[in-house]
Design a protein that fits this description.
The chain is an alpha/beta fold. It has 2 domains: 174 residues, Flavin prenyltransferase-like (Rossmann fold, 3-Layer(aba) Sandwich); 210 residues, Rossmann fold, CATH 3.40.50. Helices cover 35% and strands 24% of the residues. The protein is built from 14 helices and 22 strands. The strands form 6 sheets. An 8-stranded mixed beta sheet has the order 13-12-9-14-17-18-20-21, sandwiched between helices. It has a 6-stranded parallel beta sheet with strand order 3-2-1-4-5-6, sandwiched between helices. A two-stranded antiparallel ribbon has the order 7-8. Strand 17, helix 13 and strand 18 form a beta-alpha-beta unit. 43% of the residues are buried. Bound molecules: ligand PMT. Ligand PMT binds next to helix 10, helix 12 and strand 17. The site of ligand PMT has 25 residues, from helix 10, helix 12 and strand 17.
């Protein structure tokens, strides 16, 4: 499993003439940071909005703008650029370029290159709402889909022309997931994976609650990685500032009891359940309807037990189902992990060391100790997304052994 799906991948970005071209400069910069090899092809109208120099500087590569280059290496650019590309992305795609691609017209470098490539081509439309909804554009987009192009629907909202509606260039976070999924080996296709993430909040009154430091990053990374690998992913999340990864079905909850109800409702239907959430073990026994005056709050808070969701899942585990727990520990990682693995009838437990500040809660990185019936293994210190992929590799091994 590679650490980064984009690393070393050859991605051609075709830019056509829309004000949204400036946004795509950010996409190119992001892909280059992810170690993709990015080539940019611009139509002559696109160069009116953003200079080729901008894309050259951000991609670290030369930018192609015309069919008839002077150098020998440019003579067959319309064929060579797309020939060994892993992906081609047309963004922003104007109504004009969409119409040309639908008609098979090849009258400039970008359209000729697209006709010549056999790589997967993503088209990201961006235009005024009335141009987008015009029957001609809609017909052309349908033709593109029928021809096998992957059209990424535009977003809705305010446009540069001050009008509002559908036609804004899709957001990069979502587009990146489409590209990542298309570059990833679909080894989790056909599996339904249920992931929990984040903390729970146990209210005391309308202003106060008991909670913990979980940001949701580890759980969201698991959902994102599983979705990229083709799984059908449901994410049940406590309060988190994170955005749901593209393609994942999200249910938001607040309390442990709400998480319990949501998880148990989805559990029977899941091939794999991964419980990365940090669920509060206790909640205040009394929840006040109105904010309590500080003088009136008892110094000793009376608590009551929350349901142990993972324990219940272990009792209900179906044949063939894989149950993965997480544990946040600051001492005796191996012993605590083994104890919870057995007590909760888990197939795998991922133990996080929360004693420092480079793993566990809130940070971007993690180092997981994975324990199963066949032994214990410390995974490398790496990003949470890569940790998620490594854990999913172990889950896949277990799935292949189950009937
Ligand atoms: O969200 P981040 O900031 O990225 O941080 C990630 C993380 C550290 C929160 C995560 O990787 C992690 O370790 N999650 C589990 C934390 C935890 O609650 O550990 P625990 O040992 O208390 O619980 C063990 C397991 O039982 C967990 O899978 C938990 O989801 C589950 N549990 C616990 C209590 C409860 N009432 N119900 C449960 O299902």
């Amino acid at each position: 499993m590679v650490q980064n799906v984009f690393a070393g991948k050859k991605i051609v970005i075709g830019v056509s003439g829309s004000i949204a071209a400036f946004k795509v400069a950010g996409w190119v910069s992001d892909l280059a940071k992810e170690e993709a090899i990015v080539s940019v092809v611009m139509t002559s109208s696109a160069t009116e909005f953003v200079t080729p120099l901008t894309f050259a500087a951000l991609s670290g590569n030369g930018v192609h703008t015309g069919m008839f280059g002077r150098g020998k290496e440019d003579a067959m650019a319309h064929i060579s650029i797309g020939r060994d590309a892993d992906l081609v992305v047309i963004a922003p795609a104007t109504a004009n370029i969409i119409a040309k691609l639908a008609g098979g017209i090849a009258d400039d470098l970008l359209t000729t290159m697209v006709l010549a490539t056999r790589s997967k081509v993503f088209v990201c439309p961006a235009m005024n709402v009335r141009m987008y909804s015009h029957p001609a554009t809609q017909k052309n987009l349908k033709i593109l889909k029928d021809l096998g192009y992957k059209v990424i629907d535009p977003a809705c909202g305010k446009m540069a022309c001050k009008e509002e509606g559908e036609g804004r260039l899709a957001e990069w976070d979502g587009v990146r997931e489409h590209l990542a999924q298309s570059l990833s080996f679909q080894d989790l296709q056909g599996f339904k994976i249920l992931v929990t993430a984040g903390p729970t909040r146990e209210p005391l009154d309308p202003a106060r609650f008991l909670s913990n430091r979980s940001s949701g990053k580890m759980g969201y990374a698991l959902a994102q990685a599983a979705c990229r690998r083709g799984a059908e992913v449901t994410l049940i999340s406590g309060p988190s500032a994170l955005t749901c990864p593209q393609g994942v079905t999200l249910f938001k909850v607040q309390t442990a009891q709400e998480m319990n109800d949501a998880v148990l409702a989805h559990a029977a239907n899941s091939s794999v359940i991964i419980k990365a959430a940090a669920v509060a073990d206790y909640r205040p026994e009394t929840v006040y309807v109105h904010k309590m005056k500080k003088e009136k709050i008892a110094r000793e808070l009376v608590l009551t037990r929350n349901p142990d969701i993972l324990l219940e899942l272990g009792k209900r585990k179906k044949a063939g189902q894989i149950l993965v727990g997480f544990a946040a520990e600051s001492t005796n990682l191996l012993e605590e992990g083994r104890r919870k693995l057995l007590a909760k009838n888990l197939d795998l437990i991922a133990v996080n060391d929360i004693s420092g500040d480079t793993t566990g809660f809130e940070v971007e990185f993690n180092q997981i100790l994975v324990i199963s019936a066949s032994g214990a293994e410390t995974l490398p210190h790496t990003t949470k997304l890569h940790s998620a992929d490594l854990l999913l590799d172990r889950v896949l091994q277990l799935l292949s052994k189950k009937p």
